[in-house]
Amino acid sequence: xxxxxxxxxxxxxxxxxxxxxxxxxxxxxxxxxxxxxxxxxxxxxxxxxxxxxxxxxxxxxxxxxxxxxxxxxxxxxxxxxxxxxxxxxxxxxxxxxxxxxxxxxxxxxxxxxxxxxxxxxxxxxxxxxxxxxxxxxxxxxxxxxxxxxxxxxxxxxxxxxxxxxxxxxxxxxxxxxxxxxxxxxxxxxxxxxxxxxxxxxxxxxxxxxxxxxxxxxxxxxxxxxxxxxxxxxxxxxxxxxxxxxxxxxxxxxxxxxxxxxxxxxxxxxxxxxxxxxxxxxxxxxxxxxxxxxxxxxxxxxxxxxxxxxxxxxxxxxxxxxxxxxxx
Amino acid sequence: xxxxxxxxxxxxxxxxxxxxxxxxxxxxxxxxxxxxxxxxxxxxxxxxxxxxxxxxxxxxxxxxxxxxxxxxxxxxxxxxxxxxxxxxxxxxxxxxxxxxxxxxxxxxxxxxxxxxxxxxxxxxxxxxxxxxxxxxxxxxxxxxxxxxxxxxxxxxxxxxxxxxxxxxxxxxxxxxxxxxxxxxxxxxxxxxxxxxxxxxxxxxxxxxxxxxxxxxxxxxxxxxx
Lengths: 327, 225
Hints:
Membrane topology (chain B): Multi-pass membrane protein
Protein name (chain B): Protein-methionine-sulfoxide reductase heme-binding subunit MsrQ
Strand content of chain A: 15-25%
Mean pLDDT of chain A: 84
Keywords (chain B): Cell membrane, Electron transport, Flavoprotein, FMN, Heme, Iron, Membrane, Metal-binding, Transmembrane, Transmembrane helix, Transport
Organism (chain B): Hyphobacterium vulgare
Oligomer: heterodimer
Order of helices and strands of chain B: HHHHHHHHHHHH
Largest sheet of chain A: 7 strands, mixed
Order of helices and strands of chain A: EHHHEHHEEHEEHEEHEEEEHEEH
CATH superfamily of chain A: Oxidoreductase, molybdopterin-binding domain
Main location (chain B): membrane
């Protein structure tokens, strides 16, 4: 008999899923049907834009089945699907929170491949189906804390990043992992003011990347990712500010030096490489002590938790580090 | 004199319609925001998107800055068109900018700081965009207080006019407040900044190229000095 030890955050999905989620799911199933129909017609319906289109290498109907290993967020209801998919930062498609939902469907996400480079024995170009076992998906409910002092609680579907990285057999020179987002000037909306140097790049220290909490997500709310949420494959690093959870990944590089990261390059005094959620270290321009809770009423606020509530799992990685210095 | 001055329709418009129409136009953004909030609490909780407080801050800030810019456009408009009656709505446009800025500051105090004055002081001291925005707002206060006939009489036209040149640094502070608020290099602050630069540049150009046109010179002529 397999005896599995469960951590505090290990709860079955049934224990935590509120009724409105189940009701939501029925709506998603219905939407899934509509999406399948519209796909055959070559159109992109509103439902499809919200729930994500099926892609090659993924289940044809776009529905994902995940093992019930929900990681319980410290508290709070799930953020409704329309907020999760309608309030996004994906600056390649515009700086307004509603721009990604409006324009990200222009992004070509099929076919998709990820180039793996750097200090590893197994490198090259891989399809999503080469990296992700769609029969071994996990459901993880994480709080996403944006550096802009708002948060959501999102039911992701994906696999832990660590075992995938291990499958590339990184060498001892691989001390960091660098990630890069898809970039296409034609499909994206880069105006005369580009905001950042594109493509978007992010990175993690090796131990951060291998932490069991770090997720490579392919879906949310039981469906493949909508484009605005980083389709077809993205990172979710729940104890760090949202911009570390890089979207629409096309490149993974094993590197020996700390890699450049987009927001840090743009404003090094405001966005550090680590960017761990920390209520005690303010952004130079605003407080990080509390956060607005998206979709929970106009004035909903909560106090921000150290490491976004995941201190038990991650604090040891930063033992002895000055977190105000290494923000 | 320009042809505009002779048109009876235009003269009648200036006399009867300009003030009420401008008042309505200046109230529209505020009424629109109220309507959106009514929706949030009744039949449409996402009328202001998924982060209504942030939307409110941006809406009020944008409106205050844009109305302020419009107030700076009145004089160049008069100079270009020679249509003098437009000047009679300049003061109310400036006042409207002040009221939107007041709402902007009030919303920030109420929603973000929960009325905490120590929190306000900390923000003003520590966060450059709050410092700039608050400076712009504080400087608007004397302009708002003196924007009535009684105060103009009491102060005298020259002193009043001199005080109200504060609107130029206020516009600059406001647009820097906006620019330091956004993440990365974005278009919004630059566009607003360019318009303000154009409007202030016009005044500098007018002062240099035609010193006789300045208010002070004309005032001296009127007084026979």
